[in-house]
Structures are given as C-alpha cells and as structure tokens.
Design a protein that fits this description.
The chain has 19 helices and 11 strands. By secondary structure, the chain is α/β, with parallel strands linked by helices. The protein has 2 domains: 6-298, no CATH class; 324-436, no CATH class. Strands 1, 2, 3, 4, 5, 6, 7, 8, 9, 10 and 11 form an 11-stranded mixed sheet that branches. Strand 1 and strand 2 (33-42) form a beta hairpin. The termini are far apart.
C-alpha cells in the first residue's frame, strides 16, 4: 500500500473497510480520579480503545454529579474522538451504537468531521464532498436528554503554553478568585505559564488523553494519516471539566485571525475548530442537546494575533517559559526551523526588543535563509499559508512593516531586506499600522463583563 498515492489509498481503503463503528464507552470515578475508555471498531478487523482521565483534585465535586449529564458529555467526547481513528481508512459508513442521534445532530457531526478534516483531505489530495464522504447511521441506541444544572460564575481557562492563553490568564486574573486553569496533556510550558499566572499544579484541571497504539501501528503500515480537529475535542472535554467543577464559563483564547482559510479562496482551514463558525455551532448544539448551564466562548475572539502579541509583550515574566512550537512540543523547545516559530518571531518582534526576541528563540529567524519559503507563505507571496495556527496574511504583513519602520536600513535582517523588494512592501507600507491595534471585532460571544475587561486593554 505504501507504493500508492494517498488519493489511491483512500479509494482502496474505502473498498476494503466498509464501515467504522462507535461501539461503546465506559467510565469510572474513584479516589484516584475519573477514567473513561472508548471502544471503536474498524470493519471488525481492528479495535481501538483510547482513554481520557482526570487525576483527582480537591475542587471536584464527585459526590453531587448529575449522572445523566456526565453520561451525555462522555458519549459526545467519543463522538469527536472517533474521527482520529475513522480517518485511517475513511469507511463510507459510520455506525453510532451507544445512543441515537436526530437528523439535526447528524448534520452537526457531518459538518465538524468534514471541515475539521479539510486539511487532511487537501494534503492527501483526496477529492471528498461533504455530501458523500461518510454516511452516519445513529438510530439503534437509546436517546440522551439535555440536562440543566446550576453553575457558579467562575471561569475555566484552557492553557496551552503559548502567548494567547497567557493573555487570557492575565486579563481574567481579578475577575473571580475561584477561576481554574485547565491543561490537556500537561507539558513544561503549559504548567509553567499556568503557575506564573497564579495557578499551581494543585489548582489546575489536569487531563490526560491517550492514543490507542493500534492507530500508530496502522499509520506505520501506510494507512491514511493527517490533521484532525483537536480544538473540537478540547471543547467537549472542557464541558466535562465544567460539570465536574460546577463552573459556568469556559474562556478559550481563540482570536479572530483563526477565521481565515489556510488555502487561498477555499474553505480549507487548519484552525476550523478554533473559528467563530465552529464556536457558534458548538454553543448552539450544547444548548440544545447537552446543557444550558455552560458558557463556552473565546475571550480573545474580538482581537487579532497582532493585538494579542502587543498585549503579551507587556508580561515579560513569561518570556522564558511560553512555547507554541508543535515541532518542539515533545522536548518543550522552540525548534527554530518551522513556520510556527517564524510566525511567533514575526508577530512579537514589533513589540519586543530585538535582543530579547532573539534570546527567546536563540537565533534571529529573520536572518535564516532556509526560512524564506515559510516567510513567503506567511506574507501571502505564496497562495497557501502554513498548516499551523498562525495569523492572517494581512497582520503578518503589518507586523513586518512595523518592524521595518522600527529598524534602520543597515540593521534589516535578510528576510526583511528581501521583503522590501516585493510588491507586498509597496502595498502594505502605506497602511495606518497603529489604528489596527485598536480594532475590536464585533463577531464574538462575550458577555458584557468580559467585553468590558478586554476593551480596557486595547
């Protein structure tokens, strides 16, 4: 199979593996914490059993949980988890066995799966349509009902270890002393930034997610692999954490920049599950089918990456600990050789002194000739942006121009000297860069108290 193109593999695998099924899920709560397991099956040939666990914390109210609500949320976590396993062979039929779904719910999941796999289909050269890439059948199990509970007006803040969640931690710090940080699969940067923000490990909702090794084995054997909507999984997991803690608000740190497609003139977006569209769909679905007791929203949605970078630059105490490089995530470093590192370097450079930004990344990424192609992708010289969580083409160009204005011609690094020879410089150099930092996008779900806090800082 490894000799086939990915597009041919897709067709061959769909013929060989006719169905995928979500068989069941189970969970237990003990003194050690919460543990859930999901059972997926690929055409009666391969079984997958991924897990999710919450180590015990003093702030969990295990004794007063609404079992119907927990059951509903755990089932839905399985619904989003399964897509990582379905994509190995992309069977035409998906059977949902634990519980039944309405036609409206099936449409919701069909949209998440298709748009969340947009990058996967694009990079694998797979010609898939939202109308025929999969048929979801969910009419055999029992029906789950919406459950409303009382929650308190404190905030859960997911922390990934990058600049965005740092800004949210800092700006919401004084809102409520009962706020909690949340970290999925903790690593050094996420734990360190949370602690600097005032959340020691015992005050963190810590969640561990495991990938079943059978999937990794299939990947090695040449089955299909690629990006899945991780932030959609995080969304459903945060609902479970809110149910465990009785907190109403879940404040993500996704910005307006996440709405821009990765591939020019298309709907392919690496950040689909961070977009306003997903956020809106998820809120509506949760309200109708799970519970109206939770308020899932992105606190930074009215802002751009450039605005967030200007805010982050005020908090130098995080400079040595924050990381958002996927390539270096296992070793908790900035790899210094990927588009995510280059983007972070560019977007922060107008607001942080050159010596400091170079010390953070341990080299001047704008003086690295091997980064030219990534630079062209980020600035829109190339039509396809990097498949990373990066800002819009406009704001990258704005950041580059702000930096050029800040530096003398003699001090311009290699990539900025190159940029000045392109049409991009001629176009963007005339824009009012300062006014961009004070924009406030009205497309958001912030309640008034959160909107007022954010407006104080821009």
């Amino acid at each position: 199979m490894n000799n086939l193109s990915n597009a041919d593999k897709y067709l061959k695998l769909r013929e060989e593996f006719l169905f995928f099924s979500y068989e069941s899920y189970s969970y237990t709560i003990t003194e050690e914490g919460f543990f859930a397991e999901f059972h997926f099956n690929l055409a009666d040939k391969y079984n997958f059993r991924p897990t999710l666990s919450f180590p015990a914390r003093s702030f969990y109210n295990w004794n007063n949980l609404n079992s119907a609500l927990i059951d509903n949320i755990v089932f839905h976590i399985g619904m989003i988890e399964l897509i990582s396993y379905w994509k190995a062979a992309c069977p035409k039929t998906l059977f949902i066995k634990p519980h039944s779904l309405t036609e409206e719910q099936i449409n919701f999941w069909n949209k998440i799966y298709y748009n969340g796999l947009g990058e996967f289909f694009y990079l694998n050269n797979i010609n898939a349509s939202i109308n025929d890439f999969v048929e979801i059948k969910a009419d055999t199990g029992s029906k789950l009902s919406k459950t409303d509970i009382l929650t308190e007006n404190a905030v859960i803040i997911p922390v990934g270890g990058g600049k965005d969640s740092v800004v949210t931690l800092e700006l919401l710090k004084l809102l409520n002393s009962e706020n909690l940080a949340l970290i999925l699969n903790p690593r050094g940067a996420s734990l360190e930034t949370a602690e600097i923000g005032g959340y020691p490990r015992e005050n963190i909702i810590e969640i561990n997610r495991s990938i079943h090794p059978q999937l990794l084995q299939l990947n090695n054997e040449g089955f299909l692999n690629g990006h899945t909507p991780f932030s959609a999984l995080l969304a459903f997991v945060t609902l479970l954490s809110a149910a465990f803690t009785g907190k109403r608000h879940i404040a993500l740190s996704n910005e307006s920049s996440a709405n821009e497609s990765t591939v020019e003139n298309s709907t392919v977006n690496h950040q689909y599950s961070k977009s306003y569209e997903f956020e809106s769909d998820f809120r509506n679905y949760t309200e109708k089918y799970i519970s109206s007791g939770f308020n899932y929203f992105s606190f930074l949605r009215p802002l751009s990456e450039l605005q967030i970078a200007s805010l982050f630059a005020k908090y130098s105490k995080y400079f040595s600990s924050f990381k958002s490089c996927n390539a270096g995530s296992k070793t908790d470093i900035w790899c210094g050789n990927c588009p995510k590192c280059l983007f972070a370097f560019i977007i922060l450079s107008p607001f942080i002194e050159r010596k400091t930004i170079i010390s953070i990344f341990e080299k001047d990424l704008l003086n690295e000739g091997n980064m030219k192609f990534y630079f062209e992708q980020l600035t829109g010289i190339e039509a396809v942006k990097p498949f990373e969580c990066v800002g819009t083409v406009d704001e990258v160009n704005l950041a580059v121009n702000m930096l050029i204005i800040k530096l003398s011609d003699d001090d311009l690094p290699l990539l900025l000297r190159y940029y000045k020879t392109t049409a991009k410089f001629n176009y963007y150099s005339h824009l009012d860069l300062n006014s961009y930092l004070h924009l406030f996008n009205d497309e958001h779900f912030l309640e008034e108290k959160f909107e007022n806090i954010l407006k104080l800082y821009i």
